[in-house]
Amino acid sequence: MNCPVCKEPMLVLELDKIEIDHCINCGGIWLDNGELELLLETKEERNRLKDLFKEAESVKERSYSCPICGKRMSKVFVGEEKKIIIDKCKKNHGLWFDQGELQKVVEIDTGNSNSKIIKLLNQMFENKLSSNNDGGNK
Ligand SMILES: [Zn+2]
Ligand SMILES: [Zn+2]
């Protein structure tokens, strides 16, 4: 699958047994439909998710095409403050998160910046950063 932003092939990473697509170029993450729910641990967290997503009517941010069907995705606000905008395929193929947005969305949803999934994400991307500049091991 190619990154909707840079059109480069994405890497498939395994996160807690779920396969996610990640673009090394721009740091974005693609989740197939239902994968975000799988990343959340409790039923409450999954239910809360639906209330957090609000379809955005007009957003200035550039819109991207779904890597599966190629159709233009719609913008979705996450959370009350509407600071985070993610892209969602209108045909429900999945969700696109720019760099760091997935962590923020999970944090808003769970109200917990120490949740298992955020730790995994941070680890995953920390490792990648430190392997780029040799010897960043702690
Ligand atoms: Zn990219
Ligand atoms: Zn699609």
Brief synopsis:
By secondary structure, the protein is α+β, with helices and mostly antiparallel strands.
Textual characterization of the structure:
By secondary structure, the protein is an alpha+beta fold. The chain has one domain. Helix content is 30%, strand content 22%. It is built from 4 helices and 7 strands. Strands 1-2-3-7-6-5-4 form a 7-stranded antiparallel β-sheet. Strand 5 and strand 6 form a beta hairpin. The N and C termini lie far apart (33 Å). The mean pLDDT is 89.
Features of the shown structure:
single chain; 138 residues; alpha+beta; 7-stranded antiparallel β-sheet; 7 strands; binds zinc ion
Spatially, the strands of the biggest sheet line up as 1-2-3-7-6-5-4
User: Which geometry do the CA atoms define?
Assistant: globular
Total domain modules: 1
Q: In percent, how much strand structure appears in the residues?
A: 15-25%
H/E element sequence: EEEHHEEEEHH
Largest sheet: 7 strands, antiparallel
Distance between the termini: 33 Å
List the helices and strands and how they pair.
Elements: E1 11-15, E2 18-22, E3 29-32, H1 35-39, H2 43-52, E4 53-55, E5 74-78, E6 84-88, E7 94-97, H3 101-110, H4 116-132
The protein binds zinc ion (2 copies).
